[in-house]
Amino acid sequence: MLFKSIITSTLVLAFLSSAGGTAPADQKDRDAQLKLSLDELKAEIIVLERQVRTMQETMDKNGGQLSTLITQIVDNVNAIRQAQSRVAEGSSSAIQSVSGLGEKLTDTNQRIDRISEQLAQLRKLVENLPKLPTFAQITPGNPDQLFAAAYGDYSRGNYDLALSEFRQYVETYPTSEMADNAQYWIGECLYSKKQLNEAIAEFDKVSTLFPKGDKVPAARLKKAMALMDLGQADAARAELTAIIRLFPRSNEAVLAKQQLER
Asked: Which residues, at least 6 apart from 65, have a Cβ–Cβ distance to it below 8 Å?
């Protein structure tokens, strides 16, 4: 347990230190992103500890969280580059007369460089983490092993196999404390497979089947993201607004506000 805490703390500190220079106005959103990732990390570690008490699996779970952070950083880089392109195109005719434009573009390039450095550091951390071991055979009647195997397959990108295992978990252990988590990851598997309408239906089941589960806010937030990907802006906006109203103190509410502002 002590070593696991050291590993987790080290990874979090590595991210915080590499993210230096963030403007104070962005602190609340960044903290909410990190808190949400850590809450999810804690829930998954509880399950893995019951059956597979090894450093290998804990580190792999942290790797999954770092992969999420990497994806977010890549999105930020792309957004900054697009903004830079729009500024350059819209101001090409006046670039010689606007002395401050060059400074703004230089600042943007510096931001891109800093984010790229963060990305490289996180990628190096993930590459050095050991992989979650596969299960040659899942012991019948062992829900913890089944969940750990399903999450391991999801982490390796084996979405079809993970989908089958998470479905089996929900069907076999519908009253367990991790059933709502398994239902949530069914939606995540389909989202990763770009089956967005099917993913939305599964995210809805989290609220329907487990209305008091702690995964309800996360499922609704991910549903909103899927709606945005489908181009259904009004429906996504309504979902984000509902998250803020129903779960005002949750990290998902903070992220929903951020999405609405964008």
From this structure: 11, 37, 38, 40, 41
pLDDT digit string, tens, across residues 56-105:
444 444 555 555 555 556 555 555 555 556 555 555 554 454 455 566 66
Q: Are 203 and 187 in contact (CB under 8 A)?
A: yes
pTM: 0.54
**Tokens 């979902």 belong to residue:** 239
Q: Note whether residue 132 is domain-resident.
A: no
Helix, strand, coil share (%) of the chain residues, nearest 5? 80, 0, 20
- Whether 219 has a pLDDT exceeding 60, the answer reads yes
Domain membership of residue 136 (yes or no) is no
CA distances in angstroms from 9 to 43, 65, 130, listed in the order given: 16, 13, 17
Q: Is residue 138 part of a domain?
A: no
Residues 257 and 147 in one domain: yes
Closest CA to 188 of 199, 179, 201, 177: 199
Domain range enclosing 253: 143-261
Place of tokens 């009647």: 141
